[in-house]
Amino acid sequence: MTTESEFVQPAIPKFDEHYGHWCMLMKNFMKSKEYWGIIEYDIPVAAEEHQPTEAQKKAIDEATLKDMKAKNYLFQAIDRSILEIISDKDTAKRI
């Protein structure tokens, strides 16, 4: 039987000005957390001319939550001086 102490939480890769290396590590990290899809495809939006169905609303809400979680990891990985440059980006994909 496994215990809590046997599970190791992976460290969030810190951006160290070597973008290619950090990008590779961060992509792997986000894939392991199952957030890469939100970064790759962004949050789905319902067509403006139609009222979204309950299923579409649920999918958008779930994607929005995943996006917030992915942004949280990105904010932890990026230095404050760089965050100030990208602070106008509103989704993980745009960051």
Helix and strand succession? Answer: HHHH
The unreliable regions are: none
Indicate the structural class: mainly alpha
Quantity of strands, as a count = 0
Report mean pLDDT, rounded to a whole number: 87
Largest pleated sheet = none
From the N-terminal CA to the C-terminal CA, the straight-line distance is: 41 Å
**Spatial extent as radius of gyration:** 16 Å
Please tell me what the overall shape is: globular
Q: Count the DSSP helices.
A: 4
Helix content bin: 40-55%
- Quote the beta fraction: under 5%
- Indicate the multimeric state: single chain
Protein name: DUF4219 domain-containing protein
What does this structure look like?
- This is DUF4219 domain-containing protein.
- It is a single chain.
- With 95 residues, the chain is an all-alpha fold.
- It has a domain at 13-42 and 51-86.
- 54% of the residues lie in helices and 0% in strands.
- It contains 4 helices and no strands.
- It is globular, with a radius of gyration of 16 Å.
- The model has no long low-confidence stretch (mean pLDDT 87).
